[in-house]
Amino acid sequence: MSSSALELVWQRTMFLPDDLPAGLGPADMPDKFTPWKIQVEKAGTTVRPPWAPPATLPCPWDDASIGSPLSGFSYLPTLADLGFPDGVPAAADDGGAMADDVAGRFKGGETVALARLQDWVYEQVRTYMAIGGGLALP
């Protein structure tokens, strides 16, 4: 068996810990965001530019397993293949995803997703204001 090295990558934040001024790292953050933000801005800390997107992404499957590179995947599992022999998941098997609609059908798509995102962001801002963050809602 060959050995592998574990590489940890800091992600999902605007700043890397090493880019922050001394005393403003993740372990030193005050309880409220606004004082920290003001200190970081006064220190002139800048956000690193994003990585360039890759020119190409290799397909993880070889051409033989997908038939032809132009035809896409040649196999799409059925619900029965996924453990639902009747072809329809039971209400208890959907993890609550179908519970939003009276008819039992999941509402999805870009419009529903954007509305949900807007509701979620608005609720986060409302919570932030409630704890004294100091933002004003439009």
Task: Give descriptors for this structure.
0% strand, mainly alpha, single chain, 138 residues
How would you describe the overall organization of this protein?
It is a single chain. With 138 residues, the chain is an all-alpha fold. The chain is 22% helix and 0% strand. It contains 2 helices and no strands. It is extended. The relative contact order is 0.07. The mean pLDDT is 74.
Terminal CA distance reads: 59 Å
Determine the fraction of residues in helical runs and give it as a percent range.
10-25%
The total strand number stands at 0
Low-confidence stretches: none
Radius of gyration: 24 Å
Beta-strand percentage range:
under 5%
Structural class: mainly alpha
Query: Any idea what the shape is?
Result: extended
N-to-C series of helices and strands = HH
**Number of helical runs?**
2
**Overall average residue pLDDT:** 74
Largest sheet: none
Q: Helices and strands in order, then pairings?
A:
Layout lengths: L32 H10 L67 H21 L8
Tell me briefly what this model is.
The protein is built from 2 helices and no strands. It is mainly alpha-helical and 138 residues long.
